[in-house]
Each structure stands twice: as C-alpha cells, then as structure tokens.
Design goal:
The chain is α/β, with parallel strands linked by helices. Helices cover 40% and strands 12% of the residues. The protein has three domains: 38-245, 3-Layer(aba) Sandwich (Rossmann fold), CATH 3.40.50; 260-384, Aspartate Aminotransferase, domain 1; 425-508. Helix 4 packs across helix 5 (212-222) and helix 12 runs antiparallel to helix 13 (444-462).
Length: 509
C-alpha cells in the first residue's frame, strides 16, 4: 500500500508538470520574431484569403518555376485546376515559364503541354505584352522570385507588363515574395538613366533591399507607369529575414542561380560579366567561382584576402567551364566563401575583385568592348561610365564607393515611402513591456534603459528625421548587445528585439 501511494504521488507530480512543459516545448511567445510557422508567401495569401479578387475575371499569369507554394505546387497548375479561377494565358520571362532556357535564349510562343494554355514570351523580341497578348485578360498576375539585385531581368519584365496593363485597361497584381538576401542592406551606385538597359531600367542601386511588390509600387509611382496595381503581401516576413528564415525551398530562379549562396554573391560578383574573366557560368558554382586562363589562383586569393574585406574569404580555385567564357579551358581564380553574411558586402567585394584582377593582370584583363556609343556591358551592369574610368585611373575602391554614397542616400529616402514590411519604435516599446511581464529582464533598470532609447527613436520617427532615427536605433542595438553580454536580457527577448531593430535599420539606415 505504501509503495502504491508513492507511485500515485509521482504520477500526480508528473501530471502537474505537463502543462508548463508543453507550453515550453510546443508554443512560442507572441513576442518572438516572425518565423517559419507564421510565414506565407503572397501566392498562398491570395489562394487562402483573397481569391475573391479574381472572381468573374479572366486571369493572365506571368511566372516561372519559382511560382510555387510551400508544398512546391506550381501556381500554374493550382490556378488552372481551380474551378473558381479562369486562367486563360501564361507569360514567360527570360528562361521561360518552366525554366528550360539558358540566359539570353529567346523563347517563342508555344502551348503549355500540361495545361493546354497559350504561353507568350516576354523575353527577346517582345519584352512588353502586346495588346493582342492581353486581349482576353482582365487581371494580370505576377508571381516570380526576385534575387534582390538591380540587373536581374525579371523586375523589368514586371515593369513592362505593368506599363502594358495600364495601356490596355488590365488590372495588375503582384504576389509578393521575400527578398532572399534580406530587406535591410542597400548597396552600390544608383543607375544613371543614360545607361539604362534591360539589366538596369530604372535608377535604383545594385542591391535595392526591397521585395518585388515594393519595387512594383516604387516603379508605378516614381516612373509613371500608371498601372491599376495591387500587391498581395506576405504574412510573417520582416526586413531582417533572409531566405533561410522562411520555410520556402530554394527553387532556381534561373539556371545560373542554383543556391542562396549564389544570390548572396551575385550583387557584386556579376560585375565580372562585364569583363573577359569567367564569372563561373558553365560550372557548378556560377558567380562563386571567378577566373581566367591567365590568372594564378593562389596569387589572386592571397591578394584578395589581404584586402581584409568583411565577412568573406577567398580560396584559390581552378576550373574548366563547360560553356560560356573560356569554355573547355582550364582557368585559375578564386572561389568566394561567405563567412559572415551579416558583415559581407557583396558590391564592395565584387568591385574589389574586378579592380584587383585589372591591377594584377593589366596586359590580359579587359572590360567588354564598347558599343557604338562608347558603352561597355560593364557600364550597363554598374549603371554608369565613370566607375570603369576610375578603375583604369587607379582610384581606390573606397574612393569609388564614397563617390556614389550621396545618390544612394537619396534613393533610401525615396525607397522608404514604398516599404510594405515595416516596424516602429512604438511597436518595440510594447514588445519590451510584454517581455517585462514575462520576466525576461534581470531588473527594472534594463527595461528603463531600453524604453528610454526607444522613446527617443519614436520622437524622431514621428518627425521623420531619418538620420536621427538611424543613429538612435543603432545605439539601441549596442545597448541590446551589452544587456545580452551582461545577462540582463533573455535570449528570446534579445533575438526578437534584435530582429525588429534590424528591420528598423533597413527602413531608416
């Protein structure tokens, strides 16, 4: 009997502990950062919450293999099979709707075998939908994963389609997706309109820090596209998140964008395309491998590592491209290894690589030939003619970057008006208060210090004093780090507030 009493007492104690354990293991605090559990891309928001927007309308769809939900179901097939949706036509950007074409290949009109729908090419001879292509369309959807870089052509396919939609009285709807390299950092020169092309149509910087939906809003307003535009926003995405912070699988946006690592190096490494050096096309690591037959990989890696670029390391590499530049030739060079993505500066890194190879191999290195107007493809990529001149004149990378900063700051001011995924100091103050109720801080002084900083940020935010907001939110970030080091704040509270802080830096920094 005594033994039975002991067993029952143990069971009672175990049952009493279960609710707390379940809450700890199975639930997340509402204060925590938005994460995979809360995330939905625009396509899922449309299908699950806003499908009535398509009711009674003939739908055209611009997409490619990245137009999938979290279960990797294609939006083409999902809409085609939905009895409440009248999907009438498909439109493919560079590489096509099913992603079967290489860079630069023209895709002709054809019938999609799976759905029987007509597929119109928006790359090559017809980049802008013609009135005939839109004849039976009431609303044009755009669902393509961007990579966060100015010279990725999909965003200009979107802009041309918006312009055509406006001219033909067709609604235009963007199903938003994450910027895979984050929505915080903005880097590189703003495009000089004299150098506009299909790899740079509007004056935005190389790394724009915006989602495709935000870009659509900016293009529509700033460049008078006049589309009847709507954006289906994502749920659960914050500016501080990159692609790995979402539950989405990486689907190749194009044949030479195989991984997220490729997207991270692309804003700078793709500048190599404007030279006679291979950017790694025709290898398993495009844009991560860079080289040419005339380069000694060990020497180049040593020189680049000596530059002390933040968040990156260079390894000597040798490779033989199967196609594109130097196809079939053994090329020496480097592989880019990102060691700290938060510190990594892709544009500065790419420019440093170009200048270093230029300086080390002056007799072999060359920029792509100028056209009849004196413009090299490198100029189209960098967005101006003066950077190439400065490299050839021996100007330092830091001096070149300093020369484009004013234009970059002006763009940030414009960009702020079109950001959909934002946070505020007041929201963060409320978060601090909730964490205080949960006992996340060591003492009242820790709470007071955070609240005091955020109150100052809120005041400058209300007056739209961008410089002061940026300065004080960065000071708040340092305070958070100090509190974590001194064990004045829980890990959960720190991570949630740090994510919000990064988002604010992306808005105001």
């Amino acid at each position: 009997m005594k033994k039975w009493s002991i067993v029952m007492a143990a069971v009672v104690l175990l049952l009493a502990s279960l609710p707390a354990a379940a809450a700890s293991d199975g639930e997340e605090s509402s204060n925590g950062p938005n994460n995979e559990e809360n995330f939905s891309p625009g396509v899922e928001v449309l299908l699950n919450e806003q499908l009535d927007q398509l009711e009674g309308k003939s739908v055209g769809l611009i997409t490619n293999p990245t137009g999938v939900d979290q279960e990797l179901n294609s939006i083409v097939d999902t809409l085609h099979n939905d009895p409440d949706v009248d999907l009438v036509s498909l439109y493919g950007p560079e590489h096509g709707v099913r992603g079967s074409e290489q860079a630069g290949d023209y895709v002709e009109f054809y019938i999609d075998e799976r759905t029987g729908l007509p597929v119109y090419s928006l790359y090559g001879e017809t980049r802008k939908p013609t009135p005939e292509m839109l004849e039976d369309v009431d609303v044009l959807l755009f669902d393509i994963q961007d990579v966060g870089t100015r010279y990725y052509t999909y965003i200009y396919t979107m802009a041309y389609a918006m312009e055509a939609a406006a001219e033909n009285d067709v609604e235009f709807m963007v199903l938003d997706r994450p910027n895979p390299i984050g929505g915080v950092k903005v880097e590189g020169p703003v495009l000089d309109p004299d150098y506009e092309s299909f790899v740079g149509l509007y004056p935005i910087p190389l790394r724009h820090g915006m989602t495709v939906g935000e870009l659509a809003l900016l293009f529509n307003e700033e460049f008078d596209l006049s589309a009847d535009l709507s954006v289906v926003e994502m749920n659960g995405w914050e500016r501080s998140m990159d692609y790995n912070d979402t539950p989405l699988e990486w689907v190749l946006p194009s044949p030479n964008m195989p991984t997220l690592d490729t997207a991270n190096v692309y804003p700078g490494a793709a500048l190599i395309e404007g030279t006679n050096v291979s950017e790694g096309r025709g290898t398993a690591k495009p844009f991560e491998l860079i080289g040419a037959p005339f380069i000694d990989g060990a020497d180049l890696a040593e020189e680049l590592n000596a530059a002390g670029l933040p968040g990156v390391q260079f390894r000597s590499a040798y490779f033989t491209p199967q196609f594109s530049k130097h196809a079939g030739e053994l090329s020496g060079g480097i592989q880019i290894h990102i060691k700290d993505s938060a510190e990594y500066q892709p544009v500065k890194t790419g420019l440093t690589i170009v200048k270093t190879i230029h300086d080390m191999y002056p007799d072999d290195f060359a920029f792509r030939e100028e056209n009849s107007e004196g413009v090299s493809f490198f100029d189209n990529l960098i967005g101006n003619g003066w950077v190439r001149d400065e490299i050839e004149n021996g100007t330092s990378v830091d001096a070149i970057i300093e020369n484009w900063q004013e234009g970059l700051e002006d763009f940030k001011d414009v960009r702020r008006d079109y950001l959909l995924y934002t946070t505020s100091a007041q929201e963060m103050i409320e978060m601090v208060e909730r964490f205080e109720d949960e006992g996340a801080f060591a003492d009242d002084e820790a709470v007071r210090s955070l609240t005091m900083h955020l109150t100052a940020v809120d005041r400058f935010e209300q007056s739209e004093s961008a410089d002061k907001v940026a300065k004080h939110i960065e000071s708040f970030q340092l305070l958070l780090e100090q509190q974590l080091e001194n064990e004045q704040i829980s890990d959960e509270a720190y991570e949630a507030l740090e994510a919000k802080t990064e988002s604010m830096i992306g808005q105001w920094g």
